[in-house]
């Protein structure tokens, strides 16, 4: 009879260890901050452009290298993103940071290209263009595709062919998203093979990176691992990114599972902002503060200033009048408040001692 092999706790820990392997490039995880787009697109009341711009400018000082800054989608479908052109015109562009925007079709790309051509960097300057990257998006579920893009999966892929071709011709990098990689809000569980096939289509279209979105946030380590096994059989792991929503509180663990599988790009949203307009009940992405804390704790580098990020998470949550959904952000801000109170108390005690001696 086969007996289960007894494993020591050290062996078990090693099995689940997220410790990065020795080479430095493998120990770095790129964070794609999607708060200003995915995070804000679902907010009910229209957020002033100044707030969006200030959010992106603040995020641009934290060491983040990619900040998704809006979308050129139909304003009838997602009114919150209607002012993306103004946002791109007003942000203070940090030369080391990319500011991609979402584009669903040729109309959106034409609008963006026209904006870029009307506002080129000053001649002879080293200033970057308003943006040099777009993101296109499709779904692994037919019903979600219909709800989000008003077409079938096949039609959405056909629609992207001229978008990707024109974008690349214009010198824009193209990132691709696959939504509903675990569950569809209308159809339920999605077979990993469906995700594999649409991810492969985006790869073949020429997307330099494909971000796998657990739109509903129902993924667990096992379902995420199964999905990744299917996708990595056709797309190189270094071309993939994890985009985990945190509706069921699994965002950090699922992102870590992706990192453990070899993925080195993780999408996240400051303060856990967000929710998808076409995924009822889904909450925001994994909070950037939470995943950065988890990655740093596991020995990975992100280049992101966690405390600065927590400040921004507190600031944008109060601007929107919503609770801060980042547990790490809340903890860091509470710690800062405690430390400031202790310092003030100490200063007051010192002052009283001096007064008593006088
Ligand atoms: C794709 C369409 C446009 C099709 O929508 P449609 O209604 O089939 O399009 P249409 O071609 O019939 O056009 C309808 C109207 O929209 C206009 N229009 C058409 N295109 C544009 C455009 N680009 N920019 C501005 N206007 C546009 C067009 O001109 C027309 O205006 P009208 O003549 O009625 O006045 C629509 O379904 C759409 O905009 N969908 C986007 C929905 C969206 O933004 N969802 C959220 C982003 S995806 C996401 O969050 C998931 C992700 C990426 O984060 C990953 C994850 O977590 O899963």
UniProtKB/TrEMBL annotation:
Pfam families: HMGL-like. Belongs to the HMG-CoA lyase family. The keyword Lyase applies. Its EC number is 4.1.3.4. Pathway: Metabolic intermediate metabolism; (S)-3-hydroxy-3-methylglutaryl-CoA degradation; acetoacetate from (S)-3-hydroxy-3-methylglutaryl-CoA: step 1/1. One of its GO terms (molecular function) is metal ion binding. The keyword Transmembrane does not apply. It comes from the Eukaryota. GO terms for biological process: ketone body biosynthetic process; L-leucine catabolic process. Keywords: Lyase, Metal-binding. Residues 29-310 form the Pyruvate carboxyltransferase domain. It catalyses: (3S)-3-hydroxy-3-methylglutaryl-CoA = acetoacetate + acetyl-CoA. CDD domains: DRE_TIM_HMGL. This is hydroxymethylglutaryl-CoA lyase.
């Amino acid at each position: 009879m086969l007996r289960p092999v007894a494993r020591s706790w050290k062996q078990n820990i090693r099995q689940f260890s997220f410790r990065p392997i020795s080479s430095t490039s493998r120990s770095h995880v790129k964070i794609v901050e999607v708060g200003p787009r995915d995070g804000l697109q679902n907010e009910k009341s229209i957020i002033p452009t100044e707030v969006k711009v200030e959010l992106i400018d603040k995020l641009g000082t934290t060491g983040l290298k990619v900040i998704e800054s809006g979308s050129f989608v139909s304003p009838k479908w997602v009114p919150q993103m209607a002012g993306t052109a103004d946002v791109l015109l007003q942000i203070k562009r940090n030369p080391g940071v990319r500011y991609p925007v979402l584009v669903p079709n040729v109309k959106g790309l034409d609008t963006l290209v026209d904006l870029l051509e009307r506002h080129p960097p000053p001649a002879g300057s080293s200033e970057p263009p308003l943006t040099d990257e777009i993101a296109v998006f499709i779904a692994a579920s037919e019903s979600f595709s219909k709800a989000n893009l008003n077409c079938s999966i096949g039609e959405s892929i056909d629609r992207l062919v001229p978008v990707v071709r024109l974008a690349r011709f214009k010198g824009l990098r193209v990132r691709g998203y696959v939504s509903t990689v675990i569950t569809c809000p209308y159809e339920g569980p999605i077979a990993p093979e469906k995700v594999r096939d649409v991810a492969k289509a985006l790869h073949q279209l020429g997307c330099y990176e494909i971000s796998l979105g657990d739109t509903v946030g129902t993924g667990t380590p096992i379902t995420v691992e199964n999905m990744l096994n299917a996708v990595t059989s056709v797309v190189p792991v270094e071309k993939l990114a994890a985009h985990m929503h945190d509706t069921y509180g699994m965002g950090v663990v699922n992102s870590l599972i992706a990192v453990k599988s070899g993925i080195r790009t993780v999408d996240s949203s400051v303060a856990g902002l967000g929710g998808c307009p076409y995924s009822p009940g889904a909450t925001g992405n994994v909070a950037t503060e939470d995943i950065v804390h988890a990655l740093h704790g596991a020995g990975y580098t992100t280049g992101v200033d966690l405390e600065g990020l927590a400040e921004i998470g507190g600031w944008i949550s109060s601007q929107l009048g919503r609770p801060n959904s980042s547990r790490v952000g809340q903890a860091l801000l509470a710690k800062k408040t405690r430390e400031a109170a202790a310092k003030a108390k100490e200063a007051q005690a010192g002052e009283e001692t001096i007064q008593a001696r006088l």
